[in-house]
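Notebook p. 47: complex prediction with adenosine-5'-diphosphate.
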Amino acid sequence: MIKPMNRPTLLLRDVVKTYLVGTETVRALDGVSLDIARNEYVAIMGPSGSGKSTLMNVIGCLDVPTSGTYELEGERVAAMSQAQLAEIRNRRIGFVFQTFNLLARADILHNVELPLIYGGVARQERRHRAEQALVRVGLADRMKHKPNELSGGQRQRVAIARALVFEPSIILADEPTGNLDTKTGDEIMAMLDDLHDGGQTIILVTHEEYIAEHAQRTIRLRDGVIESDTGAYAGAASPASETASVGAGEVPGVAAMAAGATPA
Ligand SMILES: Nc1ncnc2c1ncn2[C@@H]1O[C@H](COP(=O)(O)OP(=O)(O)O)[C@@H](O)[C@H]1O
Ligand SMILES: [Mg+2]
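Predicted complex, structure tokens below:
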């Protein structure tokens, strides 16, 4: 029996996602089974084309599996209406992308307000919440700036503020430091670390071992399947669960590689 507290936030079983490209079927995910518990900090790694973004899109309800089961906080995603899915994407999951995905023409306050506008929050309340989120990421003095008047790191902080306005239970970050220099990337990672300390579940895609080291668990994908998982959730039915609770930092070599990749 799994105690309610330990029930996985995310549960995937035999998830397959195929794309038809011309006459060819690409199996972007080829039978992924995975449990992620509340407040886990997970890094997803793997070569280009291994299915990382597809997995993030499925987890974030931006895309639906071709087959298999996905349950989010105990609910089957396949059974949800479009309105429910939109609500989840807006309120329960915070997205952070490599390319920031901000509206170029709007000031950053408006950018952070957008999810609240879609969420039907009244004007005064949303202004207040957007300001609070920008204060939280250290951009109190930049609210009227447009994205192109900010550095890359500041833009990513805006994206984090936007992801936080509804205090989602899960943050999904697809290569959040991919377009940033190492020092700025470290600042963004420090913010994700703080959010994790505050109780958030964080799932992060990265190519860099020293970025993945921030997470407690590393899942490696290859050709749409899980090749390794350092800390499979103990409640999982998959065979990988027998290798439970080895943190990424404890895997020999990872720490050394990370040290080598950190600038002086
Ligand atoms: N919308 C799509 N249409 C067709 N093929 C896609 C689509 N999205 C991803 N793929 C294919 O699925 C595979 C996995 O892609 P992706 O999840 O983006 O990998 P990664 O993020 O690990 O680089 C790749 O072969 C890619 O070409
Ligand atoms: Mg990708």
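Notes: The beta strands are 8-21, 24-37, 41-45, 67-72, 75-76, 93-97, 170-174, 201-205, 217-222, 225-229. Residues 236-264 have pLDDT under 50 and may be disordered.
Next step: compare against the earlier run before touching the bench.
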